[in-house]
Amino acid sequence: AQKITQTQPGMFVQEKEAVTLDCTYDTSDQSYGLFWYKQPSSGEMIFLIYQGSYDEQNATEGRYSLNFQKARKSANLVISASQLGDSAMYFCAMREWGNTPLVFGKGTRLSVIA
Amino acid sequence: GAVVSQHPSWVICKSGTSVKIECRSLDFQATTMFWYRQFPKQSLMLMATSNEGSKATYEQGVEKDKFLINHASLTLSTLTVTSAHPEDSSFYICSASPQGAPTRYEQYFGPGTRLTVT
User: What is the mean pLDDT of chain A?
Assistant: First the structure.
């Protein structure tokens, strides 16, 4: 069974600084996808970034990058130049190959301080 | 990007009544949709997988007779909470990917439905 672990319930970061949100995963599958979603207080789920298990390079999307270490089964999200609008819950998630559901971690609440 | 809508966005109902929540993919077809439930300050938990034209697959611990799922078309799945009780109060979110989309394709989430049972 798949499992996602986010060990940081809450994080604080100064505006304009970078922050890393941790995520480790466990799966017996060789083919899988890793995702990060942002959930502001409105509740909507906003897709941030994706990393495939066979991707050799770390994914990047604007200010978001994913530090993928396959041997350690970690997929940490790095947010550079934090903005006040980045304050939200962040979920790491995984899905098996194909149109399968996402399995989510418990989330990390990020607070950006001015 | 693709859009998934949910209706209603919030609903208050009395204990013992039933509530139907609709999830629509507006600009793509989805043979499979997923229903999640999120309690306050918790993560999203998969409730069931909704398959067009066939029975839904429920996760362990989710009562299929209480949470009725119907996926009658490639763009619509409904979740009916029957005989709702206060413990069913939660945030219900659906998601879908375009038919035939690869794994790397993001799942598009609806905006969620906040259910409060009094």
Answer: 95
